[in-house]
Design a protein that fits this description.
Length: about 675
């Protein structure tokens, strides 16, 4: 077998490029499909004229790349449920004022709850008595009963279908974009009593998996596991992280061990190794032992995937390791690369928007980096003893994975835990034992034969792991946070990592030159971005619910003026990413004033007191705060502003009236609930 199947890699990369194009461009699906069919015909003609791929007939290669780019675009359009008439969005008129509609749906997936809501992804069945399909975000207000809705349960409600709001402050995490990559663009918000239980079950693999998980959790809850232990067990073995507390999640993140809580390639890889170990006797004692072993291995992996909820991370890991298991059985030394790209291609064919999942990107980059970089690092040192060899192997795997993930992790999370290798060196060697022990505990509990002593021992193992993680996370000086990191820096840093690895593998002068050029480009980008950030000056009115928050950025310092006190958590939510992106620090948080002079413009804040001075000032910009009871037409006639801004501290009904007045007076009106934060350069 060849080292890497180059044609298939080119096909996969071309398809990925097509998905990127299809996601960002609006193209009529019928035109895309027609173009793809025509391209296939052209490819067939070119195939006859090209006898050997990549050595003769370069025209065939170019046509093949174009065809699979079009194929990627077609995948995006074909999988988009909005392109089908039965989608619920085609049954409602977005131009009409929102009104209550009858929606029948079943629970498809439970999400991590927020402080105010339990959240679910639901699949619609009927909208206003019309058969419909499509996924919606359901937010159920939390009450004292804290009832959790079961996956597969069917409900009916009469409520307003609303678009999921986009991020309204600069550089905030955009939850609407995240959900759109799962084909979710609307939400419904209800109180518990507004849900009518239809007492019907939508049977599916998801429902079956949820019933198994519920039974396992119920059985385990009879033992002396505390809530933290149960939440970790659910995450490690059942793929459910919804009940993990934010503090525990933050500790694992700061310790560089967050991947332990997400059932993904690490867990599935360990389970694959355990299965190979326990099923090894089949190779020796049975005629068709290899086939039986492979079949049982793949079935076991997919059973685990079903129980773990068939989440994207589990799906990609099990698909990839299924092909890897096949490669291991046919003794292919290079099957991991082919397994990687085959599983990648299959998954994006079934769900092209998986490409935009952060976990999807991190998983494949980590596995590729381990497969490519780790063997090179392992050769640096040859330990003599078994234990030192295993520790060195774990260390090199951790370093290789971190090198592959570093640019992407910095781009998404803007922090780097320096002690990541310690948590991985301590925990990863024993994680296989913890997973194997956990599977045994769950099986014994499921069969009602789990001894209390075994349950207590496993609980102690979880506690020891948590204690280690908390200790590492508490070393805050070793966690570098708020690292500014742009797309261009990420791309050039990947070039440097790739060139460094290639040069480490085989030194060539041209690689050295390219590496030097890449480093110079990186330094140039860093200098340019630092210069841009240091010269950036702007005034910004943030979108902050029930509060007016105004910021002035100068000399990489952000001064905040706020009507009410802002909690630290709210500060991080409002302008945490804004500070990181602009390489700035928070200077002071002060009480909101009524008059500001910014550059050559005068800004007046009219608050709930409704007091404003006509004689003293003629402001350029008026900021309306706290729903002042004013007649805006008269205010405009008196003060003659050039701009009116209404933030999230005002009643929506007031904002609507003010907008009408400004349109009538031909004054620019900026409302942060629709246009986002107001920024004045």
């Amino acid at each position: 077998m060849k080292l890497i199947n180059i044609p298939f890699i080119v096909i996969t990369i071309s398809t990925l490029l097509g998905i990127l194009i299809g996601y960002h461009l609006t193209i009529v699906p019928k035109i895309v499909v027609l173009t793809f069919l025509i391209s296939i015909c052209i490819l067939g003609v070119s195939w006859k004229q090209s006898k050997k791929i990549f050595s003769k007939g370069y025209s065939f290669v170019i046509i093949m790349v174009v065809v699979f780019i079009i194929f990627g675009i077609a995948l995006v359009k074909i999988h988009n449920p909005k392109n089908y008439s039965s989608h619920y969005s085609n049954h409602i008129n977005p131009k009409v004022q929102p009104y209550d509609i009858g929606i029948q749906f079943y629970i498809k997936e439970r999400l991590k709850p927020s402080f105010y809501y339990n959240k679910y992804i639901v699949s619609t069945k009927f909208v206003d008595d019309k058969a419909a399909h499509g996924k919606i975000l359901l937010q159920v207000a939390r009450d004292s009963s804290q009832n959790i809705l079961d996956i597969g349960s069917t409900y009916t409600t009469f409520t307003t279908l609303k678009p999921i709001p986009r991020a309204l402050n600069p550089y905030q995490f955009d939850y609407s974009k995240h959900l759109y990559t799962q084909y979710i663009s609307h939400r419904i918000i209800v109180l518990p009593h507004q849900l009518i239980d239809n007492h019907k079950i939508e049977y599916s693999l998801g429902y079956l998996a949820n019933q198994i998980r519920k039974t396992c959790t119920l059985k385990l809850s009879k033992y002396d596991f505390d809530s933290t232990q149960l939440s970790i067990i659910n995450a490690l073995l059942l793929g459910q992280r919804q009940d993990i507390s934010q503090d525990t999640f933050d500790d694992y993140r700061d310790a560089g061990a967050i991947h332990i809580l997400a059932v993904s390639g690490l867990h599935v890889g360990i389970i694959l190794l355990l299965l190979n170990f326990f099923l090894k006797p089949l190779d020796r004692y049975y005629k068709n032992g290899k086939t039986i072993k492979l079949t049982l291995t793949i079935l076991s992996l997919w059973c685990f995937a079903i129980i773990a909820g068939l989440s994207p991370s589990v799906l990609r890991a099990v698909t990839m390791f299924s092909f890897l298991a096949i490669g291991m059985q046919i003794r292919s030394k290079t099957s991991i690369y082919n397994s990687l790209f085959i599983s990648l291609f299959i998954l994006i064919c079934f769900n092209p928007l998986l490409l935009f999942s952060v976990g999807f990107q991190l998983s494949y980059l980590a596995v590729f980096a381990i497969a490519w970089i780790q063997p090179l690092l392992f050769k640096i040192y040859r330990p003599r003893f078994y234990l030192s060899k295993k520790l060195w192997e774990t260390f090199t795997v951790t370093i290789a994975a971190q090198l592959g993930l570093l640019p992407l992790s910095l781009f998404y999370f803007h922090q780097f835990p320096l002690l990541f290798f310690i948590s991985n060196l301590i925990i990863i060697p024993f994680l296989g034992g913890i997973l194997g022990f956990g599977i045994l505990v769950i099986l014994l509990a499921y069969l009602n034969i789990l001894p209390e002593s075994i349950a207590a021992l496993f609980g102690n193992c979880i506690d020891i792991m948590n204690t280690i993680i908390v200790w590492i996370a508490d070393q805050e000086s070793f966690v570098i946070k708020n690292i500014p990191f742009s797309t261009s820096i990420g791309i050039i840093l990947y070039f440097i990592i790739i060139l460094s690895t290639m040069m480490f593998k085989k030194y060539e002068r041209r690689k050295f030159y390219w590496l030097g050029i890449s480093i110079i480009i990186l330094l140039s980008i860093l200098i340019y971005e630092k210069h841009t950030a240091s010269n950036l000056e702007e005034l910004i009115v943030f979108h902050n619910q029930r509060n007016t928050t105004l910021g002035i950025l100068e000399n990489e310092q952000l001064r905040i003026y706020s009507k009410d006190t802002i909690a630290v958590k709210t500060q991080h939510f409002l302008f945490g990413n804004y500070l990181t992106k602009n390489q700035a620090t928070l200077d002071t948080v002060m009480r909101l004033k009524n008059i500001y002079q910014y550059k050559k413009q005068t800004i007046m804040v009219i608050d709930s007191t409704s007091i404003y001075h006509i004689k003293s000032f003629q402001p350029d910009i008026i900021i309306l705060s706290g729903s002042p009871k004013i007649h805006l037409d008269r205010v405009i006639d008196s003060l003659h502003p050039k701009q009116v801004v209404a933030d999230a501290s005002n009643y929506k009904s007031y904002i609507d009236q003010w907008e009408i007045s400004c349109i009538k007076q031909e004054i620019p009106f900026h409302r942060t609930d629709k246009k986002g934060a107001f920024i004045l350069k």
